[in-house]
Amino acid sequence: xxxxxxxxxxxxxxxxxxxxxxxxxxxxxxxxxxxxxxxxxxxxxxxxxxxxxxxxxxxxxxxxxxxxxxxxxxxxxxxxxxxxxxxxxxxxxxxxxxxxxxxxxxxxxxxxxxxxxxxxxxxxxxxxxxxxxxxxxxxxxxxxxxxxxxxxxxxxxxxxxxxxxxxxxxxxxxxxxxxxx
Length: 181
Description:
181 residues; globular; two-stranded antiparallel sheet; mainly alpha
């Protein structure tokens, strides 16, 4: 019991991995880089989530259907346009505190992904969303673009986060081995 208590106190004295990542972000990311990183990550997550949801609706394995108003299908690019209009309003208004807020960057990434996902529909003004021609390559391209953008925006942070994570995992593993002996 005494050893467990000492180990518990030692674990509490060490910073958690999330705290170490936050410290790395504070050292390596400017406010602009933070906003861009949040934008790229939310773009990728939103794009991937929308792809899963639309496939689930089309395949019938999700319990809900398309959004409609007055019998007309509302495409998700409409939500994206509204979101970007809101972000634009914040930018035009010039509220300094709101402009750099992470929620604004997240909204921008989400709105952009919702529009990009239905870009073919906007370009041709025809609902070719499910055409096989190029759909997979567009999905992969936008996914790769999101990951690459997030990496390049904050490259020094990602290297530091990787170093901190490796050190943390090695430390936890060595404590586990010592405790088992």
